[in-house]
């Protein structure tokens, strides 16, 4: 059981119609025992980063465990086409019976390396493509975007405020989960908080202030309700003319009442020049003796604005980030793909390739593993090597080369190596112990610490090398040549 069954739905029909069509044709050809291998990977990091942060595996596991065609599902499918009865009977007993390997959530991943591998019969392999891509593309995208925002905040807490502008409920809930994995400290999304044990946090809206006859009255009432968690929104009427002075009056009253027990308080700025307003507000708060009052800022923030505001010396302690994070507004999709790379003939997997005019779109054939090499002294990641499953992992210095520009070479030495794909399902059984969200978040933090800041900078990041082993490279180019001849 995954921890959040309460939000788990049967998503069996969450697939593209052509997957069912292919399943049907294979079924009629009696190919249900034909075993194949699919790789999930993406070709380009989102949002201009030098890495991506993998998320969504827990939802993939839930999806796989709940794969069942209900009677209503089958009735619906029967209306879409005249399938043979045998096929519909097959669907009614359908279960996922294959093997899945994946990188763990919170792992830093790079273009052109398998991040999930599915080995199963061809019918099952087709069915699960769409949902797996949907779940992983979305959460990996948002986790990556959120990690950029957290990086720009440079240690300041970031709150995720995006639910109201997310593209629907799932994007809000799963997006909040991905953002927490990436390092935000809390979410305004109460459902995500409940489902995934994410700290829920928040202030109040302008409507709350408007609903009282004066701003001060609104502040005092809010203070009565939340004496120890009091962030007052100061920009409803006039930030420096009334908002900050009324917040200070409220703090003075609370301080008189509660003495040292009055803590965790501050203001939120939500419009205007956030650099200027935060500097002046800081001064006003300090002069009134409220040096520990926090300044929260929100209003269309993203990683670039946060970086810019920091450069301007803004006195902002906490960053509330909504729309631009939850929708990954500058980069609305991650292009993860699912490609057939091998099929079993007799007892052997035969590598398969898909050729394209565009060299970047030619698939890398075969059953593969991904090995990450770390500098054994600094523990920083050096390079990833995609290898054939049966190959031995190097134990001594070796020369890696760029798979496209093969004259670009690098000696890899003084390393420790780690395989990053781990077994998740074996013969349809979950064999992986799901980590808690806190463990995933801690893993993401430690993973991000293994890549250089040059890869995390917001623009023109350093490109990390993902190379192919010599054997795999030879296999790929042999297959390309064979296909060309054909
Ligand atoms: N010092 C600053 N430097 C760069 N951008 C800033 C600075 N201060 C605020 N911003 C950003 O500029 C944009 C200003 O938003 P906008 O023009 O909508 O005005 P506003 O202050 O939000 O007004 P209102 O909410 O009252 O309509 C926001 O994205 C905000 O985060
Ligand atoms: O700007 P974002 O990064 O998306 O952050 C979320 C925004 O949502 C709220 O505004 P909204 O106008 O919806 O409500 P309000 O009346 O409480 O300000 C909040 O005040 C933020 O400005
Ligand atoms: O709690 C907040 O301040 C909040 C929540 C949602 C959106 N914007 C702000």
UniProtKB/TrEMBL annotation:
It holds the Pfam family NAPRTase_N. GO terms for cellular component: cytosol. It catalyses: 5-phospho-alpha-D-ribose 1-diphosphate + nicotinate + ATP + H2O = nicotinate beta-D-ribonucleotide + ADP + phosphate + diphosphate. Signal peptide: none annotated. One of its GO terms (biological process) is NAD+ biosynthetic process via the salvage pathway. One of its GO terms (molecular function) is nicotinate phosphoribosyltransferase activity. It is an enzyme of class 6 (ligase). Keywords: Glycosyltransferase, Ligase, Phosphoprotein, Pyridine nucleotide biosynthesis, Transferase. Residues 368-476 form the Nicotinate phosphoribosyltransferase C-terminal domain. Its EC number is 6.3.4.21. Transiently phosphorylated on a His residue during the reaction cycle. Phosphorylation strongly increases the affinity for substrates and increases the rate of nicotinate D-ribonucleotide production. Dephosphorylation regenerates the low-affinity form of the enzyme, leading to product release. InterPro entries: Aldolase_TIM, N/Namide_PRibTrfase, NAPRTase_C, NAPRTase_N, Nic_PRibTrfase-Fam, Nic_PRibTrfase_pncB, Nicotinate_pribotase-like_C. Residues 159-328 form the Nicotinate/nicotinamide phosphoribosyltransferase domain. Pathway: Cofactor biosynthesis; NAD(+) biosynthesis; nicotinate D-ribonucleotide from nicotinate: step 1/1. Residues 13-137 form the Nicotinate phosphoribosyltransferase N-terminal domain. Belongs to the NAPRTase family. Catalyzes the first step in the biosynthesis of NAD from nicotinic acid, the ATP-dependent synthesis of beta-nicotinate D-ribonucleotide from nicotinate and 5-phospho-D-ribose 1-phosphate. This is Nicotinate phosphoribosyltransferase.
């Amino acid at each position: 059981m995954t921890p959040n069954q309460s939000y788990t739905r049967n998503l069996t029909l969450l697939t593209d119609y052509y997957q069912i069509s292919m399943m049907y044709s294979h079924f009629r050809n009696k190919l249900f025992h034909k075993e194949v291998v699919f790789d999930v990977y993406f070709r380009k990091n989102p949002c201009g980063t030098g890495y991506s942060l993998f998320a969504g595996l827990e939802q993939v596991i839930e999806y796989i465990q709940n794969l069942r065609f209900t009677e209503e599902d089958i009735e619906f499918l029967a209306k879409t086409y005249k399938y043979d009865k045998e096929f519909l009977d097959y669907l009614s007993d359908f279960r996922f019976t294959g093997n899945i390997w994946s990188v763990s959530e919170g792992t830093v991943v790079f273009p052109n390396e398998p991040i999930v591998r599915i080995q199963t019969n061809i019918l099952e392999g087709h069915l699960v493509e769409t949902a797996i891509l949907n779940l992983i593309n979305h959460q990996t995208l948002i986790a990556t975007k959120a990690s950029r925002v957290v990086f720009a905040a440079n240690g300041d807490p970031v709150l995720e405020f995006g639910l109201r502008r997310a593209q629907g409920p799932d994007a809000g809930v799963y997006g909040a989960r991905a953002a927490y994995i990436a390092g935000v400290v809390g979410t305004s999304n109460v459902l995500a908080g409940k489902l995934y044990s994410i700290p829920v946090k928040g202030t109040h809206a302008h409507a709350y202030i408007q609903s009282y006859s004066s701003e001060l009255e609104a502040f005092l009432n809010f203070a009565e309700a939340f004496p120890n968690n009091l962030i007052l929104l100061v920009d409803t009427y006039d930030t420096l003319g009334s908002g900050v002075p009324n917040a200070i009056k409220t703090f003075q009253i609370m301080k008189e009442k509660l003495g040292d027990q009055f803590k965790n308080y501050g203001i939120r700025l939500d419009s205007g020049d956030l650099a200027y307003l935060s500097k002046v507000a800081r001064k006003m708060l300090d002069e009134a003796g409220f040096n520990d009052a926090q300044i929260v800022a929100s209003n269309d923030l993203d990683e670039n604005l946060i970086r810019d505001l920091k450069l301007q010396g803004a006195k902002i302690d906490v960053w509330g980030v909504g729309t631009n994070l939850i929708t990954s507004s500058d980069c609305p999709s991650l292009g993860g793909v699912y490609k057939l790379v091998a099929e079993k003939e007799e007892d052997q997997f035969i590598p398969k390739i898909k050729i394209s005019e565009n060299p970047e779109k030619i698939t890398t054939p075969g059953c593969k593993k991904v090995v990450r090499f770390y500098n054994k002294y600094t523990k920083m990641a050096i390079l990833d090597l995609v290898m054939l499953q049966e190959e031995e992992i190097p134990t001594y210095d070796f020369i890696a080369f760029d798979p496209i520009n093969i004259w670009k070479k690098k000696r890899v030495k003084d390393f420790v190596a780690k395989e990053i794909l781990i077994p998740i399902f074996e013969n349809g059984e979950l064999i992986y112990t799901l980590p808690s969200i806190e463990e995933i978040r801690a893993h993401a933090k430690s993973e991000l610490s293994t890549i250089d800041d040059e890869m995390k900078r917001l623009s023109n990041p350093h490109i990390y090398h993902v190379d192919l082993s010599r054997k795999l490279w030879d296999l790929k180019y042999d297959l390309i040549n064979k296909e060309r001849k054909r």
